Amino acid sequence: MKLYEFRETQGIDSLMLVEREVPKAGPGQALIRVHAVSLNYRDLLIAQGRYMRGLKLPLIPMSDGAGEVVEAGAGVTRVKRGDRVAGIFMQNWLSGEVSAFYARGALGGSVDGMFAEYVVLPQDGVVHTPPHLSYEEAATLPCAAVTAWNALTTWTLKPGITVLVQGTGGVSIFALQFARLAGARVIVTSSSDQKLKKAEGLGASDLINYKSTPDWDQKAVELTNGIGVDHIVEVGGPGTLGRSLNAVRVGGRISLIGLLTGPEGTVNPMPILGKQIQVQGTFVGSRDMFESMNRAITLHQLRPVVDRVFPFDEARDALRYLESSAHFGKVVIRV
Ligand SMILES: NC(=O)c1ccc[n+]([C@@H]2O[C@H](COP(=O)([O-])OP(=O)(O)OC[C@H]3O[C@@H](n4cnc5c(N)ncnc54)[C@H](OP(=O)(O)O)[C@@H]3O)[C@@H](O)[C@H]2O)c1
Q1: Strands 15-19 and 64-72
Q2: Residue 107 β-bridge partners
Q3: pLDDT number for residue 103
Q4: Deepest in the core among 138, 226, 245, 312, taking most CB within 10 A?
């Protein structure tokens, strides 16, 4: 079988196509023919050696993949041959609150990921994908979608609240879709008027170009009659957090998810205290969250926004495309 791996992480060109024997499903495991993987910003950081210290190498990358069970090992009851499944991001986090142990089993990071024609996963490490989704669509769910779902649904996502999402990448577009499902008002910021137009098509009611309106925090406060936004999906990190603290309402919530503006910076914490803001770090989510999200996706026949699908042998081009930030929603590779 063919698979991609990193033996070193010196940039996108470190991604190597290699051949290996098809693995076998042991007791309690499923052999999956992967049909699609989706890219996350994390995969870029891994390629560039910027993700985490002590990354396992060689590493099969990509946390997100969907495929079909082709063999179920002895004692497997959760899935059977022919089932359409996706791997869960943190292989050990099935339910309940996160712990240090759960965070250690992340696909495509601390353990091998999904970027292979065949992978073996424990039966507990997969979920059935929503039946109306193609493999390309289902492959977008494990990281970005579950993160957006966790961020929004573990707080007060309900009709009428205002949610602000930053940019139009994978996490933010899922957050927009889930917030609209729940009847929330969504403000979207983007560097591109064209992308804002697309976000409007998905139900965003308020659009702010953060390049032409760098004071987007003030604009968000104006849009909410001086009150501020209930919930902000924060993917920028140090370069945007200060403005998010300005834009959120007294008693509101910021889900801190990403560090697109870099890992370092200075943020004045005073508004957190003064406005009693809840700043919640969010790291993907559990299998239970993934399954409840899938129920909602199925019930509402929601379709992930796939910007572009690349062929298997153009994996480096796909990563470069993600790096360019030209995408809206998710970038996928067919396997
Ligand atoms: N904590 C977790 O569990 C978790 C899970 C998934 C992702 N993440 C993190 O979340 C971040 C987003 O991930 P992703 O996979 O959704 O990335 P992505 O698809 O690559 O999204 C990139 C988009 O973010 C927007 N952006 C960039 N800089 C921005 C800024 N200063 N202000 C507002 N928007 C900005 C841009 O949108 P426009 O082109 O529209 O401007 C850009 O196209 C990354 O830092 C990633 O590592 C964390």
Answers
A1: unpaired
A2: 111
A3: 80
A4: 138
